[in-house]
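ARCHIVE ENTRY
Sequence with per-residue tokens
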Amino acid sequence: MAVNAKSTQGFVPIKEVRDGIVILKDGGVRAILMASSVNLSLKSADEQRATIAQFQSFLNSLEFSTQIVIQSRRLDIRPYLLTLETRMKDQLEPLLKVQTREYIEFIRSFTEQVNIMTKNFFIVVPYSTPAISPEGGIMQFLGMSKKSGKTGDKKGDALIDFEEKRSQLEQRTSIVSDGLSRIGVRTVMLGTEEVIELFYKTFNPGDTSQGVALPGKESEGDANKQPKQ
């Protein structure tokens, strides 16, 4: 009996990633911002209340939906250990070489007993074109580009459509970035490589490779550290 097997990509609603913008199969676009964290435990009670109130005000000011994603993964300590082993081999002082070896063994045994996690914080900003926008009117309904005034130029229409969506998406990401900056949260929009890496690790959770270094990463062991301003 024949079985209609679908590839994994068939279940992923992503058409492509262009200039850091995720283009969905339904025509919608998404921008992904990586955000830093704010350690409320280091703030006074008044500062905590003010920060929470500012965040609440930011959420209430948004006229579009957003998604906040927290991604936790086990820290891959292997690159750090390889660096230490290289330095140990280059070390000329016998005592320092012994101390480095003992330190490597301590780090290795400690990380085997305790799961050290890294956390990344993401803001997903969406935009989808209305079925018939006021700007497009009857021309959009007939499949005609308002700027070109003709039909059939699919590549040109697709490019114009993407640029219009990009413009709207940039306005929304600017609103989110400005709002979060008021409470001390720094944001940066992910580029194409970072977006691809993010989705790869999302669909391949067993892969512990570090890949591209992303801004805003912190480990749970750094919970007592003041975030950089």
